[in-house]
Amino acid sequence: MADTGIIIGDDGLARPVWATSSELMQTYYDTEWGMPVRDEHGVFERISLEAFQSGLSWATILRKRENFRAAFAEFDPDAVAKFGDDDVVRLLGDAGIVRNRAKILATINNAQATLALREDGGLADFVWSFQPETTPQPRTIEDIPTQSAESVALSKALRKKGFRFVGPTTMFALMEAIGIVDTHLLGSHRRGASGVWQ
């Protein structure tokens, strides 16, 4: 089924090519990607990791995920919001994460913006308020969009709230990852698994 971008695994299950590149990626695809994340902590972690992924492969970020969690106080926004200059120096010296000053500073900034958003109902509800009325129905990898009207709107809205590294493509990837849209290929065994879209 190479023409659709789907591969049938040894277990008989259909997955997109990217989900078969390693055991780590397959486990992520089978158990986490596209499943609803509706809590502040979970959404903050995903926004942070998507920002670090910008310009890199998701596999790189996934391999470093536990290192990121250790370095960023398990992505507790209350803790990260208090990070200062010493923490930035520490993070820039941490070979276990992506050592990009702009992305590190953006994560600290976004933690502070997350705390401020609590007055408006919180980060998770804010992000989920951009759920579209319909979700893509991709038959092939080429059918999957890289952004949408909703991801553009979410990007603009988050920027107005002070967030950084939240461009439309990054926000569409976030929406895919946390179940706001379902871009599982129609032939994939995970299509509809989130329960958000039937």
UniProtKB/TrEMBL annotation:
Keyword Glycosyltransferase annotated? no
Concerning Gene3D superfamilies, the annotation shows: Hypothetical protein, domain 2
Any idea of its EC number?
A: 3.2.2.20
Show the InterPro entries listed in the entry: Adenine_glyco (IPR005019), DNA-3mA_glycosylase (IPR052891), DNA_glycosylase (IPR011257)
Keywords on record:
Glycosidase, Hydrolase
Query: What's an example of a GO molecular-function annotation for this chain?
Result: DNA-3-methyladenine glycosylase activity
Q: What is this protein called?
A: DNA-3-methyladenine glycosylase I
